[in-house]
Amino acid sequence: MTRDPEAGTGTGDRRPVRRGPLAALAGVAAGAATLGTAELLAALWTRWLGSAGTSSPLLAVGGAFVDRTPPWLKDWAVATFGTADKLALGVGMAITLTVACALLGVLAWRRPTLGVGAFAAVGVVGLLAVLSRPATGVVDLVPTAIGVVVGIQVLRRLTGMVAGLRTAAPGSPPHPAATRAAGASRRQVLLTTGGVTGVGALGVLAGQLLSTVGQAATRTAQAIGLPTPVSTVSVPADASSDITGHSDYLTANADFYRIDTALRVPRVDAQGWTLRVTGMVDEEIEISYDDLLAEEHVEALVTLTCVSNQVGGDLVGNSRWQGWPVRELLARAGVRPEADMVLSRAVDGWTAGTPIEALTDDRDSLLAVAMNGEPLPAEHGYPVRLVVPGLYGYVSATKWVTELKVTRFDEDEGYWTPRGWSERGPIKTASRIDVPRSGGELAPDADGAVTLAGVAWAQHRGVDRVELQVDDGEWQEASLLAEPSVDSWRLWTYTWSAAVPGNHQVRVRATDATGETQTEQTAAPAPNGASGWHTVDFSVA
Q1: Which of 489, 482, 492, 481 lies closest to 451 in space, CA to CA?
Q2: Cis omega (within 30 of 0) for bond into 527
Q3: Which of 54-58, 71-75, 303-307 bottoms out in mean pLDDT, i.e. has the lowest?
Q4: Nearest CA to 169 among 37, 6, 300, 318?
Q5: Which of 212, 309, 405, 406 has its CA 20 to 30 A from that of 357?
Q6: Has residue 187 got a pLDDT over 90?
Q7: Confidence band of 76 (pLDDT split at 50, 70, 90)
Q8: Which segments of 237-340 are extended strands (E)?
C-alpha cells in the first residue's frame, strides 16, 4: 500500500493531513493580515496627517487598474455592471488576491525562501501602485510597508506550523520554522489561520469605514448655508408625467447615476476646499468655498449623460442644479485668446478637457454646489462640481473639482482622451422607451388603446420631434410634454389606438432643434457616444 507523502499517521490525530490546503489557507491569512494592517493604518494615516495622497494599497491597485483599462473593457464593464462596476472590480480583486495568496502560501511551505520572496515582490507591486497615485508621496508608503512586513512574518509563522504538524509523516519537507512550530495540530492550524484571516478582514473593514465619507460633509454644508439664487427655475406641471414606469422629469439625488474612476468617494472638507484658476490667464485666481457661496448663484435644469450609456440605457439623469456660472470666474481671471480648452482637475487627480466656448458662452455651465435644492451628495461631487450642458461627462462634469487650467487641446488632454475617447465629446441626440420595458406587456384601455412613453434628449439644442414605429408600420409622431429648458431632457407619450393583441416591436427616434434626426445605424459608446434607435419587444394583452 502506497502512503500519501502528505498524510499524517500520528496517534494524536489519525486523520490524513494534507498540508497543501493548510499552506494555502496560511497564505490567505498572511494576505489578510497584510491588507488589514495596511488598510487600517492607511485610514488612520490619512486622518492624522491629512494626506491628499492614496495610502490605501487596495485603492491604489484598483486605481492603477482603472487607469490602464482599455476602452473596450471599460465599455463592457459599464454595460454589464452599470453603476455597480466598482463593486464588480472589488469582487474581482478579492478573488484574484485570495487565489494569489493561496498559491504563495503553498510556495512558501514547499520553498520557504522563494515563497517569502515572491510574497515580498507582490508587496513591492502594492508599494509602487501607492506611489503612482496622484498627490502621493514617499511617506504614504508607510502603511503598506508595515502591512507587508506583518504579512511576511505571519506567512513564515503559519507555514512553519503547517510544516511542523505533529501528524507529519517521516520525510516531510524541512522548514526553518518547523522546530519552533513542532507539536501543532491540524485543528490548531485551522483555528490560527481562521483567526488571523478574520482579524485581517476586520482590519480591512475598519479601514474602509474610517475612510468612508460620513455625514460630516453634508452637515458642514448645511451649517454654512447655501445662498439664495438670484435666478431660479421651476418645472411646470405639463413637463411631467403620471404614467407608471415613465421617468420623473427630475431624477432624485439617490437615483442619479454615478460613473467615475474614484473607487472610494473622496472626503473633502468644504472649509478647507479651494479652487485655483491657472494657465493661460491674465491673473491666476484662488477662491474658497466661502468665496464661492458669496457670489450670485443661479439655478439651471441640466441633463447629464455618461459617454458609456448604451442605446436605451439609464446612465443619464436630469436635475435642478445651483451654482455660480463658470464664465464669470474665467472672465475675472482673464482668458488669453490663444486658449481653446480648460483642463479641470478633481481632488483625486482625475481630469477632463472641456472646449473653452462651452464654459464661456451663454449656456448654464456652473460651479455647482447644490442638486435638486440640497447640498451636493458626496458621491456627486461635494462640495463643488462642474455641470456643463451639451457635453458628455468625461469631458465636462468634473466632481470634487479643485483646479481649472486654461490651456490648449494641443498641449493638454483629459483623463479619457489618451485612452481612446474623442477629444471634445458633444452629446448626440438620443431617445429611450420607458413604457413598455423590454419583454413587458401592456393592457389596452376600454377603447382598445395602449400608451407608450419615454424620454429624449439633445442637450443645449433641444428636442423638436419624437417618432415611433410599431412593427414595420409607418413612423408616427409622439406627443411631446413641455420643455422648460433645451439643456434638459424632454418626456414624450404615444397612444396606439386600436392596439393589436399579441407580440410587437417598437422603436423610437428623435429630431433635435437643428433638424438632425437619429439614424438607424447603431454605434457603440466608444469613442464618442452610442447612437441608434432604441428598440423594445413587448406584447399587448
Answers
A1: 492
A2: yes
A3: 71-75
A4: 6
A5: 309
A6: no
A7: confident
A8: 274-279, 285-288, 298-305, 316-325
The mean pLDDT of 366-388, rounded to a whole number, is 95
Residue position matching grid coordinates 494534507: 18
The three grid cell numbers given for residue 203, joined into one nine-digit string: 482590519
Between the alpha carbon of residue 492 and those of residues 70, 275, 302, 514, the distances in Å are 36, 40, 18, 19
Collect all residues with Cβ–Cβ distance below 8 Å to 121 and sequence separation of at least 6.
none
Specify the residue for cell string 463593486: 87
Supply the pTM of this predicted model: 0.77
C-alpha to C-alpha distance for 66 and 268, rounded to whole angstroms:
22
Q: How far apart are CA 132 and CA 265, in angstroms?
A: 19
Is 226 in contact with 59 (CB distance < 8 Å)?
no
- pLDDT number for residue 2: 37
Residue whose C-alpha cell reads 501528524 in the numeric block:
167
DSSP codes of every residue in 14-81: -S---HHHHHHHHHHHHHHHHHHHHHHHHHHHHHHH--SS---HHHHHHHHHHHT--HHHHHHHHHHH
Supply φ then ψ for residue 515, to 5 degrees: 95, 5
Burial 453-490 (b: 16+ CB within 10 A, else e): bbbbbbbbbbbbbbbbbbeeeeeeebebbebbbbbbbb
Please state, in angstroms and rounded to a whole number, the distance separating the CA atoms of residues 270 and 384.
9
CB 454 within 8 A of CB 467: no
Rounded CA separation 389/336 (Å) = 23
pLDDT per residue as tens digits for the range 45-67: 776 665 555 678 888 788 777 77
Q: Is 510 helix (H, G, I), strand (E, B) or coil?
A: strand
Say how far apart CA 291 and CA 53 lie, in whole Å: 26
* Region of poorest pLDDT, from 53-62, 225-234, 358-367: 53-62
